[in-house]
């Protein structure tokens, strides 16, 4: 019986599985914040150069390299993100973060380790590739304006032009060994909302002598939800959430002068997104004015929505079933979180899929962006092999 390419890649992924885990441990122990990934970039460069690849810096802490196939063809981009989060890790693992207050709590260490492993496999198979693999290690996924947007401006999708983009992200809701795909609209746009309410402070026993910005803020937060429930089309997913409210001074018996509110708007339609932001500004200003207060609204534009190109994503899902087995490939629901991979999806046909990392028997169930997040490291073999296989199939089929 002849050996198939999936068997070859599976075997290679198994052979380097421990090496990929050790890479992940190094990255996890040495996390760096967005756009400050200098040591991480140097580590990535050194590893890629050890594979005989010529590396390039982009946007200071971004790294890219090219695997050129023996035959001419298209170019597929494989992306991993390098940055960590400002979270103090709570773990007794040997690879716990050594950088106080910084943690790989979103799995970017896994993404980078898997892509380095995939690079090693694909380098060994380059004579069989019909086209090029552009390896993209980007900074700043966790912080606006998003490293992807900067890399695109600096030409990462050109010279040679990238025909397809593939990205992989950990998912602690999916068990290890499984992956998830979704065609079409997948992840939401995200905008940051900052509202300052200015009233007139005074004694809590004499509210009629001032303008209470606390009461105004409550009215604004409550009424802005009407934008979602009564202004948004029921068929357009929309989330408006406020996660922070502070006052300037104030106490049990002191009405403050100002209140500061912070929140987020997320949706999956760019036209409605623009309209909703205008409604937030006008409604907040009008409500504040009706109380005799003033509302200053600042909305910082975030990432666009992420759309997986349907034909490409179906093909990648089919290839994943071939590589892993049909039962190990799941169909994802819409996810209202945001990802700056969306910038790539707005430019070229793209597929962003999920790598399962959950293992309830091992107690590995914590969500991303928490201080106890970790992954079942058996997932790294899956992530390494699958990314290499998808790139191979994308070029050769």
Order of strands in the sheet with most strands: 1-2-4-3-5-16-6-15
Order of helices and strands: HHHEEEHEHEEEEEHEEEHEEHEHEH
What's the alpha carbon Rg, rounded to whole Å?
Answer: 24 Å
Whole-number count of domains: 2
Class from secondary-structure proportions: alpha/beta
Beta percentage is 25-35%
Distinct helical segment count: 10
CATH topology name of the largest domain: Aminopeptidase
- CATH superfamily descriptor of the largest domain: Zn peptidases
CATH class of the largest domain: Alpha Beta
**What is the typical, i.e. mean, pLDDT?**
97
- Tell me what the CATH architecture of the largest domain is: 3-Layer(aba) Sandwich
Low-confidence stretches: none
Number of strands: 16
* Helix content percent band: 25-40%
Summarize the biggest pleated sheet. 8 strands, mixed
Distance separating the two termini: 22 Å
In one word, what is the shape?
A: elongated
Notable features of this structure?
alpha/beta, 10 helices, elongated, 16 strands, eight-stranded mixed sheet, single chain, Aminopeptidase, four-stranded antiparallel sheet, 397 residues, Alpha-Beta Plaits, 2 domains
Task: Sum this structure up briefly.
The chain has 397 residues and is α/β, with parallel strands linked by helices.
How does this model look, in words?
The structure is a single chain. This protein has 397 residues and is an alpha/beta fold. The protein is built from ten helices and 16 strands. The chain has helices at residues 5-15, 17-29, 38-50, 108-124, 147-153, 213-231, 270-290, 310-324, 342-345, 379-396; strands at 55-58, 62-68, 71-81, 130-138, 164-175, 179-181, 184-187, 191-198, 202-203, 238-248, 254-255, 258-267, 294-301, 306-308, 329-331, 350-358. An eight-stranded mixed beta sheet has the order 1-2-4-3-5-16-6-15, with helices on both faces. A four-stranded antiparallel beta sheet has the order 10-12-8-13, covered by helices on one side. A hairpin with a 3-residue loop joins β1 (55-58) and β2 (62-68). The longest helix has 21 residues, at 270-290. The mean pLDDT is 97.
């Amino acid at each position: 019986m002849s050996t198939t390419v999936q068997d070859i890649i599976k075997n290679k992924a198994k052979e380097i599985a421990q090496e990929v885990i050790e890479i992940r441990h190094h990255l996890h122990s040495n996390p760096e914040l967005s756009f400050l990934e200098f040591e991480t970039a140097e580590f990535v460069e050194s590893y890629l150069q050890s594979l005989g690849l010529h590396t390039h810096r982009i946007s200071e802490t971004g790294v890219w390299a090219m695997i050129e196939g023996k035959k001419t063809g298209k170019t597929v981009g494989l992306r991993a993100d390098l940055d960590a989060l400002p979270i103090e890790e709570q773990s007794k693992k040997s690879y716990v973060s050594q950088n106080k207050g910084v943690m790989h709590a979103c799995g970017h260490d896994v993404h980078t380790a898997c892509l380095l492993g995939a690079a090693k496999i694909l380098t060994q198979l380059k004579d069989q590739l019909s086209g090029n693999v552009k390896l993209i290690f980007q900074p700043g996924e966790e912080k606006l304006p998003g490293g992807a947007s900067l890399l695109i401006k600096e030409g990462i999708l050109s010279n040679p032009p990238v025909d397809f983009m593939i990205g992989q992200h950990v998912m602690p809701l999916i068990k290890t060994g499984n992956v998830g795909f979704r065609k079409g609209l997948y992840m939401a746009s995200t905008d940051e909302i900052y509202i300052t309410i200015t009233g007139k402070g005074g004694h809590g026993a004499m509210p009629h002598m001032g303008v209470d910005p606390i009461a105004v803020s409550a009215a604004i937060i409550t009424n802005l939800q009407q934008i979602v429930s009564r202004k948004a089309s029921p068929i357009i997913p929309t989330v408006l959430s406020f996660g922070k409210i502070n006052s300037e001074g104030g106490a049990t018996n002191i009405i403050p002068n100002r209140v500061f509110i912070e929140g987020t708007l997320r949706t999956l339609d760019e036209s409605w997104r623009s309209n909703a932001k205008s409604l937030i500004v006008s409604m907040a200003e009008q409500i504040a004015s009706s109380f005799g207060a003033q509302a200053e609204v600042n909305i910082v534009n975030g990432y666009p929505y992420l759309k997986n190109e349907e034909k490409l994503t179906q093909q990648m899902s089919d290839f994943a079933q071939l590589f892993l087995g049909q039962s190990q490939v799941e169909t994802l629901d819409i996810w209202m979180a945001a990802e700056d991979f969306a910038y790539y999806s707005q430019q070229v046909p793209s597929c962003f899929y999920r790598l399962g990392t959950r293992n309830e028997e091992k107690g590995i169930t914590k969500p991303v962006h928490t201080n106890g997040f970790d992954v079942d490291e058996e997932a790294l073999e899956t992530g390494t092999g699958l990314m290499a296989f998808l790139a191979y199939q994308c070029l050769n089929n």
